[in-house]
Design a protein that fits this description.
The complex is a heterodimer of chains A (114) and B (266). With 114 residues, chain A is α+β, with helices and mostly antiparallel strands. Chain A is built from five helices and three strands; from the N terminus they run H-H-E-H-H-E-E-H. Chain A is 54% helix and 16% strand. Classes of the chains: A alpha+beta (114), B mainly alpha (266). Chains A and B meet through helix 3, helix 4, strand 3 and helix 5 of A and helix 2 and helix 4 of B.
Chain lengths: 114, 266
């Protein structure tokens, strides 16, 4: 799978990972890498602008903690974000179903000319 | 081979490249934490500190690239498009002309003509479209905080509140809608949300109405609803352009790349 195809869906991917529980950016990136089987080959630093925008949009909330003398930002999904994930998930499933209907296994035409 | 302190140099470059962003310190702190976690993980896998730093930076992307994406995202504000927001944008775009045509038809048809019924139906549909547009706006910007919540509910009750005032209700409605757009404008400003045209129109509505009112009053001229009409045109224009922007937010941009934060990544 080409990484480009996944980049356009980064918002949904990030929200879906955070849906499972609060995460900091590094953990998010690691989980994305594992769950996409390394298909999402993007510069790690580019997820942070996305996270900040999703927070500005009220879909994510963040809080700062201190770990080992360093500041660490942890993101979690807001109730508004949960609704958006559900909507985007439905959109994606409908889209995937439609494409699968065309690109999936071929069925015999009807009526069968044979 | 990477030099020790390479991450410190990277952070300095990033700080310089993103110096115009308001949350600069938070950005740098977050990036530093990420890079140091990556370095620790790399060392745990057997790399030397220098190798670990070099790989962490290579995976993270250049400071120039990361800064560019941050700045692009900053311009985009807090807008997150969904199917609902696109449909709501289309409804918001249609609401003003429907309300206008419906009002004219209801007035022209008087009370007993079919035209009047069509006008009332159009006005009712326009109200529904207006509320749907507001819902879409809330979804698109995460509610715009407290200002968005107040504006949303004010918008929902605006027409029912104005109805008992009969003809004076037009003024009541204009004031209510004016308050709604001002609150939305403040919320959009706080959320650093584009597009600029509707924001400017929203912001200009009340001052323009007040200015025209004052000028006509000072000149002793009959206003003939000119001040209210001007405010209505600006508000309608703002709502329509905002709806147009919302309805046209595609999943992919014209070049076929994602419209998400990585649209700027070559």
């Amino acid at each position: 799978m080409k990484a480009e195809a996944l980049k356009g869906h980064l918002d949904l991917l990030l929200l879906a990972v955070v849906e499972d529980g609060p995460r900091h950016g590094y953990a998010l990136m690691e989980e994305l890498r594992i769950r996409t089987a390394d298909a999402l080959d993007l510069p790690e630093g580019t997820i942070y602008p996305a996270l900040h925008r999703l927070e500005r949009a009220g879909l994510l909330a963040s809080k700062w903690t201190e770990v080992g003398g360093r500041r660490r930002r942890v993101y979690e999904l807001t109730s508004h974000g949960k609704g958006t994930v559900e909507e985007k998930r439905r959109d994606w499933q409908a889209f995937a179903l439609a494409v699968q209907g065309v690109l999936g296994p071929k069925v015999e035409p009807w009526p069968n000319p044979a | 081979m990477a030099e020790p302190g390479l991450i410190a140099a990277y952070l300095t470059e990033l700080r310089y490249s993103t110096s115009k962003l308001p949350d600069l310190d938070d950005i740098v702190a977050e990036v530093e934490d990420h890079l140091l976690m990556t370095v620790a993980a790399n060392i745990a896998r057997g790399q030397t500190p220098a190798e670990a730093e070099a790989e962490a930076l290579a995976r993270f992307g250049s400071a120039e690239l990361v800064a560019r994406v941050f700045i692009e995202q900053e311009k985009r504000g807090g807008a997150v498009s969904t199917t609902l927001t696109r449909r709501a944008g289309f409804a918001a775009m249609l609401a003003p002309p429907m309300m206008l045509v419906g009002g004219i038809a209801a007035n022209a048809g008087k009370s007993e003509q079919p035209l009047s019924g069509i006008g009332v139906a159009l006005c009712t549909a326009a109200t529904v479209a207006f509320v749907y547009g507001l819902i879409g706006l809330r979804v698109r910007h995460g509610g715009l905080g407290m200002f968005g919540r107040v504006a949303f509910w004010l918008g929902v009750v605006a027409i029912p509140v104005a109805l008992p005032f009969a003809y004076a209700g037009i003024v009541v409605l204009a004031v209510e809608v004016g308050l709604v757009v001002v609150l939305i404008g403040v919320g959009m400003h706080r959320a650093r949300i584009l597009p600029r045209v509707p924001v400017a129109l929203f912001a200009f509505t009340l001052p323009a109405w007040a200015l025209v009112w004052l000028v006509l009053e000072a000149a002793g001229l009959d206003k003939k609803g000119i001040d209210v009409a001007l405010a209505a045109v600006l508000t309608f224009g703002a709502f329509m352009t905002l709806g147009l922007a919302m309805s046209r937010e595609p999943a992919l941009d014209a070049r076929g790349r994602g419209a998400g934060p990585l649209a700027t990544v070559e």
